[in-house]
Every structure is written in structure tokens, then in C-alpha cells.
Amino acid sequence: MLTVLVISIFAGLLGALTGLGGGSIMTPILVQFGVPVKYAIAASMVTIIATSSGSAASYVKERITNVKAAFYLEMFTIIGAIVGATITAFIQPRLLYFFFAGFLLTSFYGLSGHLKEEFPKRVKQDRFSKWLELQGSYYDQAARRKVSYKMTNAHLGGLGMMVAGLAAGMLGIGAGAFKVSIHELILRMPSKVSSTTSNFIIGITALAGASVYFASGLLFVGLAAPMAVGTTIGAVAGGRVLNRIPNRIVRYLFLAIVLVLIVQMLYKGITLQ
Q1: What pLDDT band is residue 210 in, cutting at 50, 70 and 90?
Q2: Cα(103)–Cα(2) distance, rounded to whole angstroms?
Q3: Which residue has the higher pLDDT, 203 or 3?
Q4: Which residues of 190-229 are buried (b: 16+ CB within 10 A; e: fewer)?
Q5: In the prediction, which pLDDT does 171 show?
């Protein structure tokens, strides 16, 4: 329990900085410890709620999170999460590893081509996104200037977030990696807005999925409790330092974690007896 607590603090910190959520980091770690994948996914759902709760307040206070965009996108992810969590009970564990790796791979491929882009440029807002008022601004402490931005492709973003919700419900990861990719590649959010908005969304998505796991008897409280405490501590710390880190460093950190997770899950899926 003490080991899980310590690792969860680190996972919560990284999850808050990258928008991945602590669950995407803790799921493969628990699997390496010998925890069955479905129980690891269920416990990670609680971890995601803790990560979101620990960091979201700080990000909203600093006006980095785009709350309006978060509520719009959350409608789609909640539906996907409930459906995905229900499907998990009927899928072989081996397939879950490959699904996990596949979603992470799409994120890695999409964002690796935007490493040098500090902020989105020349974003032309479509009529629907403008009607939803999907724009905002925040003060970037690392760049030492106010950043104004506009989002686009809200309709495609909603469909993408429904798929992300399916991943969240099936894999217990909050689908933070997939959501961050949708935010940046489709909606054209700045990196920090993407990360913080993802952190805001994943908690509600995970809550929808966790209720299904609890009803299915897959949620082991003795494992989820120390994970929730640890990730909350780490997430609070991450929420305090994100705005002081350059966007490029946030992207490099995100891609490094995603690459490690891809390798781990592919290896486990291939070697599973």
C-alpha cells in the first residue's frame, strides 16, 4: 500500500502536467505488479477522479482551463465512457492491452509533428465554433505574455471526444492522451489549455465509468484508496508549476510518457498467457 501511495504521487504530478490523468500511468504499473488488468482499470478510474479534482481548481483559478469548451466536450465523453465501461465486461483482457496501445499511438503520431509550435497560428474559426464562443485567453508565465486563442472544428471535436470516452470507459485511462490530441490537432487549443481542459474533463468522464465498475464488483477499495490519496497530492503540486513550464517542454514530457506506455502495453498484450 505504501509503494502504491508513493508511485501514485509521481503519477498524479505527471498526469496533471500532461493532461493524461494519473490513471493512464498507474494502469500499466499496476499490471506490472501483477494486478489483473480489469481491476487495475477500475482502480485507475478512481485515480483519474482524484487527479482531476486535485489540479482542476488551480487551473480554473489561473483561467487556463477553458470551462465552456470542457462542458461542451464532456457531453460526448460521458456517453462514450458509460458504453465503454459496459463493453469491458465482455472483452478479453488481451484485447484491452492492444486497444490501450492503439489509442496512445495515435496521440504520439499526431503531436510529434507539432513539437516546434509554441502556440497555434492562423486559426480560422468556423461558424459553429464561433456560435459556441469557443475562444479565450490566459497569461503564460513561461512566455511572459497574454495568449489569446480561438478554437475551430467543434463538430469534429465532439465526435472525437465520444471515441475518447469509449477509450476511457474501456481502458480506465481517462483517455487523456487521446483527448489532448483532439484538443490540439482538431480544435487547435494551445498546449497548456489543452492539458488543463483535459484534466477538467477526465474527472467527470471517469466518474461515469467508475459507477459501472463499482456495480460490476471490479472496484477494490483497498487498492483505489491509496492511489486516490497519492494522485491528489501529486496533482495539486503539478497544478502549481504547469504555467511556469514552456509549452514545448510539456509536449516533450507528454510524448515521452506516451511512448513508454505504448511499449509496456504492447509487450504485456503479446506475452499474456
Answers
A1: confident
A2: 31
A3: 3
A4: bbbbbbbbbbbbbbbbbbbbbebbeeeebbbeebbebbbb
A5: 64
DSSP reduced 3-state for 156? helix
Strands (E), the chain: 135-140, 145-150
Residue 137 DSSP symbol: E
pLDDT tens-digit profile of 131-154? 999 999 988 888 788 988 999 999
**Joined grid coordinates for residue 207:** 466518474
What is the rounded end-to-end Cα distance, in angstroms, of the chain? 27
pTM for the predicted model, two decimal places:
0.72
Cα–Cα distance between 122 and 270 in angstroms, integer? Answer: 43
Q: What average pLDDT does the chain have? A: 80
Q: How far apart are CA 168 and CA 176, in angstroms?
A: 8
Burial (CB count <10 Å: 0-12, 13-18, 19+), residue 66: buried
Q: Among residues 77, 113, 46, which one has the least CA distance to residue 198?
A: 77
Domain ranges of the chain: 2-271
b/e sequence 87-116, b meaning 16+ C-beta within 10 Å: ebeeeebeebbebbbebbbbbbebbeeeee
- The residue that leads in pLDDT, 45 or 114, is 45
Contact at 8 Å (CB) between 225 and 4? Answer: no
